[in-house]
Amino acid sequence: MSSGTDDGCDKCGHMDTEVGTISTTGGGLSKMFDIQTNSFKVVSCTNCGYSELYRDDTAGSSDIVDVFLG
User: Which of 19, 29, 63, 70 could form a disulfide with 7 if both were Cys (CB 3.0 to 4.6 A apart)?
Assistant: First the structure.
């Protein structure tokens, strides 16, 4: 974690991000019937493409971007 300042992307220091979502299957029957049981937010650096996944149980994406940028 950062010391409270905006450090930017861990890989290149860039400050611009994109936020997307992905859904994945779990195991067992959900996999067999292709039921999407897990949802994640993906925060990606627009400069180098470095990405991190966060479980999608938050109300908004601004908090996740703050975590990604440090």
Answer: 70
Following DSSP, what letter does each residue of 1-70 receive, concatenated?
A: --SSS----TTT----EEEEEEEEE-STHHHHTT-EEEEEEEEEETTT--EEEEES-SS-SHHHHHHHH-
Residues 6+ apart with CB under 8 A from 63: none
Convert the pLDDT of each residue in 6-41 to its tens digit.
689 999 999 999 999 998 876 666 556 656 578 899
- What order do you get walking across the sheet with 36-45 strand by strand? 17-25, 36-45, 51-55
Over residues 43-61, mean pLDDT: 85
Looking at residue 35, its amino acid is I
